[in-house]
Automatic annotation (TrEMBL), chain A:
PROSITE patterns: COMPLEX1_ND1_2. One of its GO terms (biological process) is aerobic respiration. NDH-1 shuttles electrons from NADH, via FMN and iron-sulfur (Fe-S) centers, to quinones in the respiratory chain. The immediate electron acceptor for the enzyme in this species is believed to be ubiquinone. Couples the redox reaction to proton translocation (for every two electrons transferred, four hydrogen ions are translocated across the cytoplasmic membrane), and thus conserves the redox energy in a proton gradient. This subunit may bind ubiquinone. One of its GO terms (molecular function) is oxidoreductase activity, acting on NAD(P)H, quinone or similar compound as acceptor. Its EC number is 7.1.1.-. It is a multi-pass membrane protein. It is an enzyme of class 7 (translocase). This is NADH-quinone oxidoreductase subunit H.
Length: 366, 383
């Protein structure tokens, strides 16, 4: 229960500064400054924007379907926020250690689609409806490669429990994992190179099962589409659809939709970190007497364990968000047909092949 | 690189070709944006002018200049806001004559003796009763500065001086208050009289001044602007001081500092000019002065038509929508009435500036309310 306010405040603070970071990054990429006037280096710009947003008039269009229109932002945000329930925030610290965590998470963020469709349909606006239809088509399509890439991880770890997946990538695999006891280099047991005590990035899932690197790329691309972020932002393509499904939203409702978008960015980044990038574990391995992994990790359940765990998980998630932002300001938007081509003809077959290979790889692991 | 990507023209050839081309081009794109991202963190364009030899060497990093805080320096021969160093001005009127857009207005008051010397040694014999430059009209040709014999009129480097009210673009450079100008003028006229007549009028001075005042107003068309000048005349010195600052600071202009000062200096100078002095002093003067002075070129005459022009177009459209309700014949008569009203107003206001001006704001407000009703009421309301 204590994690609800923690995650909520993390999302709120993160959203404020993610918007700022996004504007700064886009500015730097385009050789300009970005916000500079409000506060030192414009750091308070988003807070000013937020205050402006909250004091705006709440307008519900006359011809809108009032119930759907009002309910949509709440559904979008709550569906995404519900996904945070199963995230292991640190060793021994999670809102719910559901043994079907990954499954639950993918299922619950799919509800997001219903919210978006309600928003687009309820607005009674052509732009909104187009945006919603595109969003639904895109998100449902990209859930296939997303789920398949996650499935490869689940096969490797033999668990749907996100905390279990995290423990398998940690130094304490012996004590806490219910499934595995040891980590071998690249997961090959026959190589007899036991790296359980080495830890660091070598025990991340993408190294325990190197084919998961491909899976990670698939997951990352699909998650961009899932977040409706550029280059997959055709649901809210500014140049075509004004703002897509949230064209008609103002003030607080718009803020909630916006919050939902940034929350799902954070959520998929957390998920990618947990599934592929070693969760809350430090990236530094123990090298001889340099016990980097020991120094930068805490024993599960202790305060240092929680602090280090939260630090590493948030750092990894934020790095991925930074990458998402750079990608947004680098690539042009895909056409609808290119979008579907990428999803069904490239990513889905690739994810299927990865599943096949990681199945064989699993046989080589213990 | 180029040839390779031409061979694998993926998007047009094969499935694998398009995928590999996609991957390579995506990576190239990411590299490019990352390069710019990191360059932007390290390098930044300096605010130097084109005359600097480093000007073309800033080819990476942030290109934005944060204008109010930093600006590219103005070249030495840049032509921006005019400034007249009134102490060096001999009021020769050359600048006003050569100005292609007539933006300089000078009211020269001859002096009886030498007033002083300019800094280059020229003798000053004429007071500038008015030295107004309307920077809204100025075309920045710089002709006035080239003809100026004492080089008191210069183009400064201040270019950021926009105003919300175009009337504030008129800069007053005289160092005489209207009272002083009046005094000098009287003095000169008296001297002229003395020259033409033997000295006999010395005793009648006190009564003579009032007559002179009245005469001036009746004869000279220009004094119309006199009340306009009053408040600003006391401040030009302070404004010049603030104006000088941005010029003196070469290189980056910290106009964040200078701007507010300029505005503070400018606003109080001009605001009272139009609102308070024209409206308030007038009734007093006019009640004192004989009625013959009023027509056409009276003090209020020049300013008021402007105000009227501003008012008219605003209110006319308000009235029209109500017209369709009335029948056509009524409409026609209404229109006539309206025209009459309009002309009446014009006459009234020009003839009796005081009453016309007081009524004006009230009338348009009532019109739209009353018009839809029977037209007699409307007429009553108008008159």
């Amino acid at each position: 229960m204590i994690l609800i306010p923690v995650f909520l405040s993390i999302i709120l603070v993160y959203t404020v500064f993610a918007v700022y970071a996004e504007r700064k990054i886009s500015g730097f990429i385009q050789d300009r400054y970005g916000p500079m006037e409000v506060g030192p280096y414009g750091i308070l710009q988003t807070i000013a924007d937020l205050i402006k947003l909250l004091i705006k008039e709440d307008i519900v269009p006359k011809s809108a379907d009032r119930k759907l229109f009002i309910a949509a932002p709440a559904i979008v945000f709550s569906a995404i926020f519900a996904g945070y329930a199963v995230l292991p925030f640190a060793p021994g610290l999670e809102a719910s250690r559901a043994s079907v965590g990954v499954f639950y998470l993918l299922a619950i963020i799919s509800l997001d689609v219903i919210g978006l469709l309600m928003a687009g349909w309820g607005s009674n606006n052509k732009f909104s409806l187009y945006g919603a239809i595109r969003a639904v088509a895109q998100m449902i399509s990209y859930e296939v490669p997303l789920s398949l890439s996650v499935l490869a991880v689940v096969m490797t770890c033999q668990s749907l429990d996100l905390q279990e997946i995290s423990y398998q990538q940690s130094l304490w695999i012996k004590d806490f994992s219910k499934i595995s006891d040891n980590n071998y280099l690249f997961g090959i047991q026959s190589s007899d190179i036991n790296i359980t005590e080495v830890g660091g990035f070598l025990t991340w899932n993408i190294f325990r099962n190197p084919i998961l690197m491909v899976s990670f790329v698939v997951f990352f691309i699909a998650s961009l589409a899932e977040c409706n972020r550029a280059p997959f932002d055709i649901p809210e393509a500014e140049s075509e659809l004004v703002a897509g499904f949230h064209t008609e939203y103002t003030g607080f409702r718009f803020a909630i939709l916006f919050l939902g978008e940034y929350a799902i960015m954070l959520l998929v980044s957390f998920l990618a970190s947990i599934l592929f990038l070693g969760s809350w574990n430090s990236p530094f391995p123990n090298i001889g007497f340099l016990r980097l992994a020991d120094w930068t990790n805490g024993y599960p359940g202790t305060i240092s364990g929680i602090a280090w765990g939260a630090f590493w998980l948030i750092s990894k998630a934020f790095s991925l968000i930074g990458l998402q932002m750079v990608i947004r300001w680098t690539y042009p938007r895909l056409r609808v047909d290119q979008l579907m081509f990428l999803c069904w003809k490239v990513l889905t077959p690739l994810a299927l092949v990865v599943i096949l290979i990681s199945g064989f790889w699993r046989l080589m692991m213990n | 690189m180029m040839t390779k990507s031409h061979i694998h023209k993926g998007a047009k050839s094969t499935y694998w070709g398009s995928i590999s081309e996609g991957i390579t081009s995506l990576l190239a794109g990411l590299l490019l944006t990352f390069k710019h991202l990191f360059q932007a963190l390290r390098y930044k364009r300096e605010p130097v002018g084109v005359e600097n030899k480093d000007y073309f060497s800033f080819d990476k990093g942030i290109v934005t200049l944060q204008y109010p805080h930093e600006a590219i320096p103005v070249p030495d021969n840049g032509r921006y806001r005019l400034h007249n160093e009134i102490d060096d001005c001999i009021v020769c009127d050359l600048c006003a004559k050569i100005c292609p857009v007539n933006c300089i207005e000078i009211d020269a008051i001859k002096s009886t003796e030498e007033i002083g010397k300019t800094s280059d040694g020229s003798t000053k014999r004429i007071y500038a009763g008015t030295f107004d430059i309307d920077m809204a009209k100025c075309c920045y040709c710089g002709l006035c500065t080239t003809v100026c014999p004492t080089e008191c009129l210069t183009m400064t480097k201040t270019y950021d001086y926009s105003e919300f009210d175009v009337r504030n673009m008129v800069y007053h450079f005289t160092n005489l208050t209207p009272d002083q100008a009046e005094e000098k003028k009287k003095l000169y006229e008296e001297k002229q009289k003395e020259k033409s007549k033997p000295k006999s009028q010395e005793t009648t001075k006190p009564s003579g001044t009032e007559d002179a005042k009245a005469e001036e107003k009746a004869n000279i068309p220009k004094p119309a602007f006199k009340p306009v000048i009053k408040p600003p005349a006391s401040t030009p010195e302070s404004r010049e001081d603030t104006n000088l600052k941005p010029e003196e600071m070469s290189g980056t202009i910290k106009s964040g500092e200078t701007k507010p000062e300029e505005k503070k200096a400018a606003k109080p100078v001009f605001k009272p000019v139009i609102k308070a002095p024209t409206l308030n002093p007038k009734p007093e003067e006019e009640s004192n002065v004989k009625p013959e002075n009023k027509p056409a070129t009276s003090e209020s005459g020049e300013i008021k038509p402007e105000e009227k022009k501003a008012l008219r177009p605003v209110f006319k459209p308000v009235i029209k929508p109500s017209v369709p309700k009335v029948s056509q014949s009524e409409e026609a008569s209404n229109e006539q009435d309206r025209k009459q009203d309009a002309t009446d107003e014009k006459k009234g206001s020009t003839d009796e500036p005081k009453s016309g001006e007081v009524k004006k704001p009230a009338k348009p407000i009532f019109k739209p309310v009353i018009k839809p009703k029977p037209k007699q009421e409307g007429e009553q309301g108008d008159q």
